[in-house]
Automatic annotation (TrEMBL):
InterPro entries: AASS, AlaDH/PNT_N, AlaDH/PNT_NAD(H)-bd, Lys1, NAD(P)-bd_dom_sf. Belongs to the AlaDH/PNT family. It comes from Suillus plorans. Disulfide bonds join C197-C241. The active site is at K77 (proton acceptor), H95 (proton donor). Monomer. NAD(+) binds at R129, G195, R196, D219, T223, Y243, V272, I313, D314, H315, L316. Residues 7-141 form the Alanine dehydrogenase/pyridine nucleotide transhydrogenase N-terminal domain. It holds the Pfam family AlaDh_PNT_N. This is Saccharopine dehydrogenase [NAD(+), L-lysine-forming].
Amino acid sequence: MSTQRLWLRCEKKEFERRSALTPTTAKKLIDAGFQISVERDEQRIFDDVEFEAVGCTLVDNSSWPTAPTDALIIGLKELPASQEPLPHTHIQFAHCYKRQAGWSSVLARFYKGGGTLYDLEFLTDATGRRVAAFGYHAGFAGAAAGALALAARRSGEKLGRLEPYENETAMIEGVKNTLGGSAKGVKALVIGALGRCGRGAVDLFRKIGLSEDDILKWDMAETAKGGPFQEILDVDIFVNCIYLSSFIPPFLDKDQIIAAGQNRRLSVVVDVSCDTTNPFNPIPIYSINTTFSEPTVPVDLGQDLPLLSVISIDHLPTLLPREASEQFSNDLLPSLLELPRRKTTRVWTDAEKLFHEKQKEAIAAEGL
């Protein structure tokens, strides 16, 4: 069997410091016979020399388009928008299977180049559960960002630029200090509380000092009656952590918020799920993703109502880049080790089948 080549590309999204491979998982792949190329990247949380020390070959930043076509290109976030054909096999979060903005154009690039997409979001085990996900750290970081936005609001300010934390302890202490030492008295509601993402949000709220009674933990049972939900307006922070796959009634809408007038406690909405351009978005009160440099966007409610801010950053786990990368890459490792047998291994054959189904829809949409 020939050596399996894997090429870790750099991330082009601003502030994205996470990595699909870590020096730890790269070494395990090399020990299993893989050949790993790593693009030099000053933005990545792991230094280039950490990869070099375990046997990876360092290559130029953004040089993957010239990589041998038998090298699988692995990254995290979507590629920059382009019309260039894609002849390689890519492993990444492409954000194009749920008809997000520009979805068909992304898939058309693979059609034109003859390449293949293995979307990380849709690599699942035999029970349908994702083999690797950043959900826990997304929820944890999203709740932290929500608490920081609330503190800024209480000080009459807008939340400024967010910077990654060295570790979880530093994040917890930083948030608590910003809130004056503790978040006691803050009330939060988490929808999707039983999933990975929701558990992360709940854990952060506990660790910064919210009492258990002030953390409302909702999941499918609590939302079964259908929204909008008045209870959301009665907390300080609302965190949405659901995985959306089909239409559901909105959790919250502008008419409901406006009708509440001055009698609204809600100050911050954190949409960790970030289905901004999804036609089924259950929080249709905003229309743009926010960023680490501009983490909040105000909801347009008119001049006489209290401010309501939305956080909709689609790569929140990069607030804890080292820990999030280590956890994700370690969970992904067993599937990566099966790449030489991807034509017969279920996790990869299922992912390739889904790619071809979605690509067929894109071809029709693009008129190719």
